[in-house]
């Protein structure tokens, strides 16, 4: 028999370059464990259904376990001539246990096999990613708890807008990451069905028991249409979409960390372990990690686009094009895992420069809205109040004063409604703590959300 399992109808050997060009072994070998896991479950089912003998299944399973041990010990030669992980393992099995190994592929095709392997593999990776998402949430929450009294400038258009608690800002990312985790958990739900049993595309003539295989492999059920089973890569697309959104969030946090660690902001310090120096400028400590994560967001977006474009217009059922699904998927998994892991640690160790944040929060007339709200409470329509405070701010700019520094007489030039109690409303604390409704930045509102987050994490 020829080395290639499919060589029967061929008279000429494959062109060497074609062999290399069509092979996926260099990247799909990372799925070896899942390929073997799926094959073991399949062999058990074949024996249970008396499609092969029990003793044959035992031999096959023993052989597969031996191959698994060999691969893990680094004693396995992956061959490009055997194209992919599925044929590499099968060929080795036959080499190891003889012709009976050739019975493993009964009632199965590489098309339903690869669909199964990718789902098993991604399922495990997703669980790991969910763990990292959880660690990052913990780090963000920890920073919020540790810095409850810290006030920073809140921005719109990157212009000072209103003071907010730094904890509130951290909790904003907590919410984003929580939704990211929800999206990943969602991928897991739709991914967890077994495609094996679809055969090449139409099903199989053998009396298989798909539910039995599903149960052994921890799937919640089986796919319902054989054509769809071997064609569907939605689960990979859902994952890559969720990953793109998640990286978008990390890129926003990255951007802020980079700005905040600049000498001009000086709001935070990333610990030395997460920074690098310059080969020429001795003073430099560069925020490489957030910069790289910001950069890596681009490739994760690119992977999503590759995969969407790959699948666009493909006729049913399997097409070799689909072998190209793996590199973008694997790269996305690696990038997301690395970024999350490093962020969870970096955020946990980040040092907060509370005083600098406070000084910046007081600049830029950040309590102007509080004066407007004060005037509104005295019965003046908001639009007029806006105008009054606008003029007050202009006066401050022209006279180089800050709002809390104005005398009552100066305030009264703009509105007679302003009384001596105005000074109680224009401090940073007063401004922050006035925003008490759910989701606001008041300390009591933020403490409520921290408690809520803590409670939901206990569950
Ligand atoms: N390496 C292939 C892939 O990843 C496995 C399925 C191949 N099936 C086939 N009929 N050529 O898509």
UniProtKB/TrEMBL annotation:
Q: In which pathway does it act?
A: Amino-acid biosynthesis; L-arginine biosynthesis; L-arginine from L-ornithine and carbamoyl phosphate: step 3/3
**Could you identify this protein by its name?**
Argininosuccinate lyase
Q: What is its main location?
A: cytoplasm
**Where is there biased composition of kind Basic and acidic residues?**
444-459
**Domain Fumarate lyase N-terminal residues, every copy:** 8-302
Tell me its EC number(s), please: 4.3.2.1
What reaction(s) does this enzyme catalyze? 2-(N(omega)-L-arginino)succinate = fumarate + L-arginine
For this UniProt record, the keywords arranged alphabetically read as follows:
Amino-acid biosynthesis, Arginine biosynthesis, Cytoplasm, Lyase
Against PANTHER family, the record matches this protein to: ARGININOSUCCINATE LYASE
What is the uppermost EC class here? Answer: lyase
In alphabetical order, the GO MF annotations are: lyase activity
What SUPFAM superfamilies does the record tag this protein with? L-aspartase-like
Where the record annotates domain Argininosuccinate lyase C-terminal, the positions are 365-433
